[in-house]
Write a structure and sequence with these properties.
It contains 15 helices and 12 strands. It is α/β, with parallel strands linked by helices and 356 residues long. The protein folds into 2 domains: 104 residues, Substrate Binding Domain Of DNAk, Chain A, domain 1, CATH 2.60.34.20; 149 residues, Serine Threonine Protein Phosphatase 5, Tetratricopeptide repeat, CATH 1.25.40.550. The strands form 3 sheets. The chain has a 5-stranded mixed sheet with strand order 8-7-1-4-9, with helices on one face. It has a 5-stranded antiparallel sheet with strand order 3-2-5-6-10. The relative contact order is 0.09. It holds the Pfam family AAR2_1st. This is CYFA0S17e01926g1_1.
Amino acid sequence: MSRPPKTTVIFSNVPSDWIVGIDLQFFNSNAVLRGIKLIPDGIHVVHWAPDSSSVRSGFYFEAKEASVNVIYWDSANEKMLINEEIGEINVVKEIDGLSQSYPFMIAYPEDDTWSSLTRFIEFRQVNYMLPGTSNVMDSVLTSTDENNILLDAIKRGAEQRGTGNLANDPIVNSIIDQTEEEIKYTPIDLSKTVRPNSTPEEKTHDGIDKSWYLNNLITVAYNGKESLLLGEFQLAYINTIIFANYSSAMHWLKFLRVLFYCQDATKQKVAFFEKLLTTLCVMLEKFPEEYADEFVDHDFFEVSLAEFEFTVKDLNLHKLVKKVIDIKNVLLARFSINVQGIVEDEEEDGPVIVEL
């Protein structure tokens, strides 16, 4: 048969009773299931695990018209092989057999939420940040930033022990050797939010207001494109809720620890912050309950969102005030987080003025 419409993912030799899925959907594999069909254009992730307590793995791909991906479980090596990893001849064989396997595939479960949660991610970010050539992700991968912190600590320990030549230290080398198996998120160092060569006044200001750090991050790390920052913010979130990846959860929170404390930038970049808050609200609505206690920091949201609320009220940014109220409602309804802030006072019950 000619290649089917949209994008198809072929399952080959995937064991029965595994928990497999695509994007935010999870289901059990069986002896009949042969894959997923009619996947719409855009960024998607297929994922799998033997059971709910096992390490979850998956791979990202960019769906395009008439494209086909193949995943094959190599039982001898206990590894999922993706596309070229199974060999060109085997890929062609799987595609040639689509006419037999296509009726035994499930159609992509349409979900508008997925588009909202990935709208800013560019696939080149996925290619760069995830290890290897197949854009594979799993629950236990760590970030470059996290590995560097660990490496520095180990080096200091080795120096204190008088180990000698660090180049021959096996513990140090075990961390260095992981550089090809780590997530290359943009480093966010919350201890370096003060601009270099700053005056005393600037140091005081930057200690309270992280706008300089945010603007510098956008300029240096994202080539001036705010959307790339939002894309990485979304990618960290997706890796958190699908894979329960700890490094990704910490990275996601680091973004918020910067963004909620940017008074000057909030006034300068209203459209950017409106996109951020809209995205964050959807994120919190879809955050899995089973991960909430581990990854949703109650104290942080209670304090930091209240601070941000004060900022947008003080600046009379009514569009952002409304977005903050939406987030507060989600936090209260889903996680029993009650953010006490200015809008809780006498104006809380009054109408919210929205600029058009």
